Amino acid sequence: MIPYGRQFIVNEDIEAVVEVLKSKMLTQGPAIPRFENDICNYVGAKYGVAVNSATSALHISCLALGLDSDSILWTVPNTFVSSANVGLFCGAKVDFVDIDPNTYLMCMNTLKRKLEKASKDGLLPKIVMPVHFAGQSADMKILKKLSLKYGFKILEDASHAIGGNYLEQKIGGCQYSDITVFSFHPVKIITTGEGGIALTNNEQLNEKLVLFRSHGVTRQHKLMETRFPEPWVYDQISLGFNYRITDIQAALGSSQLKRLDEIVKRRTEIAQLYNSELSNLEIKLPKQCEKGDSSFHLYPICVNDRKRVYDGLQSAGINVNVHYIPIHLQPFWKKKGYNIGDFPNSENYYSRAISIPIYFGLKDSELDFVISQLKKLIY
Questions:
Q1: Of 316, 317, 315, 276, which is closest to residue 299 (Cα–Cα)?
Q2: pTM above the 0.90 mark?
Q3: pLDDT per residue over 207-260, tens digit each?
Q4: What are phi and psi of 15, to 5 degrees?
Q5: Angle separating helix axes 364-377 and 306-315, nearest 10 degrees
Q6: Which is nearest to 77 in space by CA: 334, 329, 339, 340?
Q7: Residue 294 CA to chain centroid, in angstroms?
Q8: 155, 235, 329, 360: most buried, per Cβ within 10 A?
Q9: What is the DSSP pairing of strand 72-75 with strand 217-218?
Q10: Is residue 288 within 8 Å of residue 294, measured between CB atoms?
Q11: How far apart are CA 194 and CA 32, in angstroms?
Q12: Residue 379, pLDDT above cutoff 90
């Protein structure tokens, strides 16, 4: 089967992991801060806190930004359920902003209207979480202006988007947000096996993220309540979690990061070939915004008779996928009062969407085969 996405591991990655396995520390050693610094240097952020998943990173980011039972989180329906679940983890209310029908990103016009109404009703969100779907940034400059007007915090779910650009700056530098989160799941651009990172330029937010990552425990004297502590003393000063990443994973991440630009270049080449070869078919291709460059985590197409096309590709040995079932249509969320028709752009996109293969190790012959099968199935 040709998958829609796959990690690409080289000997240098394996050697980096083996080096840690042969060392005296497998977790909480030097590889983690090195990986955090590597990511920060790449994107231009001041601080990075690596954790065991992007979901964990989103969760502690919400906590660091003060999300609680008295507040509201807004995100998009067109994302994996974790983007919304983390709001519930904090006890907050979660609501959604529909997507732009062409870019599949949070629609800023819809957001403006929703903010105007929420302001009148006294129900403004504490956090707005745009999702950089498929590797392309939401319009962060507009979002930042809205945040200054309405007083909400911005948490970028950039799980898809490491290696992408927005207004000629790397996604992740937090130029227009409080915190940005990346994912390092195996199907993402680079991988640590499982893992994620929260990036920020705010020292106080960084301190909170570090605390929440590891049980709310610290040995930093400036944060401890114990005065003149003995060397063995640590203070738990908040409720935290065991969201730590390992040195094994971090070493893999640092090694993969060295090839990030090469990986994104290849993904871009694949996307450009799809754009060229599929443009004459009855397919809606993903629209790329002029304000940035996608890292092309996904290449979603929209087709008529999705079931027939999906089954035909699967039968041909092409393991395509669908991203995403709108969150508000999940049984869990429908029980909270959401219904079909609440977010029509997300629903219309989902009804026709298929994610076709795009990853660094996709061979030219496999790419040609995917294109030929699509041409057979779509007239």
A1: 276
A2: yes
A3: 999 999 999 999 999 999 999 999 999 999 999 999 999 999 999 999 999 999
A4: -65, -35
A5: 140
A6: 329
A7: 13
A8: 155
A9: unpaired
A10: yes
A11: 14
A12: no
